[in-house]
Specification:
With 103 residues, the chain is mainly β. The chain has strands at residues 3-8, 17-22, 25-32, 35-40, 54-57, 62-65, 72-74, 89-90, 92-95, 98-102. The strands form three sheets. The chain has a four-stranded antiparallel sheet, with no helix packed on it. The radius of gyration is 12 Å and the shape is globular.
């Protein structure tokens, strides 16, 4: 695995996500409370773009709602919160103004 620069820290707005490419993969990258989190961008249900979903916090963890059908996934672990399977999560490192994802 290698750390790949995905974007600049200023490219992701607080409380939102965006889709980035790292190591040939589409990654959903989120910024929540100043921290960055990365999971697979593709929802296992019907391929919805998780990086375009809305963040929420239900007290059990911060998640993203898939914009296609509303399934929820934890942005820290990738665990499916309302779907039986989850998605991969990736370690994120911030170096200066660069966000790097380990893929």
């Amino acid at each position: 695995m290698a750390l790949i620069t995905a974007c600049k820290t200023s490219d992701v707005e607080e409380g939102f996500g965006r889709v980035v490419k790292a190591g040939g993969k589409e990654i959903a990258l989120f910024k929540n409370n100043g921290e960055f989190f990365a999971i697979d961008n593709t929802c296992p249900h019907q391929g919805g773009p998780l990086g375009e979903g809305q963040l929420y916090d239900d007290g059990s963890g911060v998640g993203v709602i898939c914009p296609l059908h509303g399934y929820m996934f934890n942005i820290k672990t990738g665990e499916g919160m309302s779907f039986p399977t989850g998605v991969n999560s990736y370690r994120v490192v911030v170096e200066g103004d660069e966000v790097k994802v380990e893929v």
